[in-house]
Each structure stands twice: as structure tokens, then as C-alpha cells.
Amino acid sequence: VAHVARYHRRSSPKPSHLEYLAVSRESRVGTYYSTSEIINSGFGRIDRRPSQRHVSTGHEVGILSIDDFCQDERIDMARLRVCKIDVEEGELDVLLGMRKTFERGARPIILTEISVGENRSGIEQMADYLMLFGYSPKRLKKREWVMARIAELPVGMHGNLIWVPEASVRR
Fold first, then answer.
1. Nearest-CA neighbor of 23 among 109, 93, 102, 108?
2. Nearest to residue 112, comparing CAs of 89, 96, 146, 131?
3. Cα–Cα distance measured from residue 98 to residue 68, given in angstroms and rounded to the nearest whole number
4. Are 21 and 62 in contact (CB under 8 A)?
5. What's the pLDDT tens digit per position in 19-66?
6. Which residues contact 149 (CB under 8 A, 6 or more apart)?
7. Concatenated DSSP letters for 62-86?
8. Least trusted range by pLDDT, from 46-55, 73-82, 115-124
9. Contact 35, 44 (CB under 8 A)
10. Are 3 and 88 in contact (CB under 8 A)?
11. Does the pTM exceed 0.85?
12. How many Å apart are CA 34 and CA 13, to the nearest integer?
């Protein structure tokens, strides 16, 4: 569902204490499958192996929603201005885990990485969800940020979308 990141907890008694955490729509425990054959050590999946051709080892990790993480760490999401999400097709799950943040009025600019395939349902669902909170997608085209029409994104496109809140909604 999402990548695992090492996170240094501020509340830890040891400054070097790291925890493996994943981000998704809900807080729970899951299995993280890492891959030893890929140079990018962040490549892996929660609750399913990345692919049959890669040897994967699994270990338990804590999974948190962004809402729960911010509450646990006493982070004021209203001060959040930018949010970068790159979780290999798990963006919608991460965004669903920010629902309370959006409902409280926080409207950070959101940057997501996408890969457009024949089936656009994941990107369309993400667009529908973010539009509920006043966001519109933009993409870089010839050095200019332009409105991204999801249905018109070319198959095979791999790049970033920036989700910008409407000025009237932004606090």
C-alpha cells in the first residue's frame, strides 16, 4: 500500500532510535516486503510482494494514517504547506488517511508521482477525492504548469502532478 520509511521519533529516549513506519489510510500492523535485488532500498510493498520475480523478505511494521501520525507527534497540520507523496500507486490510501486533516481546513499543496496506464481508475479516484476538498490537478508541460485533465494524460506518462487548492478554500 505504501513505502516504509525510517523515522526518528522525537519522543525516543535515544537520539539514534529509528522505527520502520508505513503510511496508509488506517493505523494497523502489516507486513513489509522489501526487495534485495533492487538498488532503490525504498522499493517494496505492504501486505503483498512487489512482484513474483523478486525475492522478498517480509517483516512486521507499524502502519499509520497521516492523521494519527500528526496527532501522536502533536504536529499542527494547519501549518503544513506542502505534502510530497510517492508511494508506488498507494497515493489514494495515504490521502484517505488525511481526511481529518482536510476536514479541519488544512490545504497543503500536494505533489504526487504518477504512472499512467490503460486503466486510469486509481488516478481518477484520487482526483475525485481531492476535488471534494477543492483541489485541482496541474502538470508541467513545456516548462509551464497547466491544468491536468486526467482523461487526457498520455498512456505511459510517468511524472508528477501537483494538486493545488482553490484560493477561496486555502487558509
1. 93
2. 89
3. 9
4. yes
5. 667 788 888 888 877 665 544 555 666 766 556 655 566 778 888 899
6. none
7. EEE-HHHHHHHTT--GGG--EEEE-
8. 46-55
9. yes
10. yes
11. no
12. 28
CA atoms within 13 A on the CB side of 155: 5
Sequence letter at residue 71: Q
What is residue 97's three-state secondary structure?
Answer: coil
- Torsion sign across C-alpha atoms 105, 76, 107, 66: negative
Q: Which three cell numbers stand for residue 23?
A: 503510511
What b/e sequence results for 17-50 when a residue is b if at least 16 CB atoms lie within 10 Å of its CB, and e otherwise?
Answer: eeeebbbbbebeebbbbbbeeeeeeeebbbeebb
| Cβ–Cβ < 8 Å for 67, 97 | yes
> How far apart are alpha carbons 81 and 46 in whole angstroms?
27
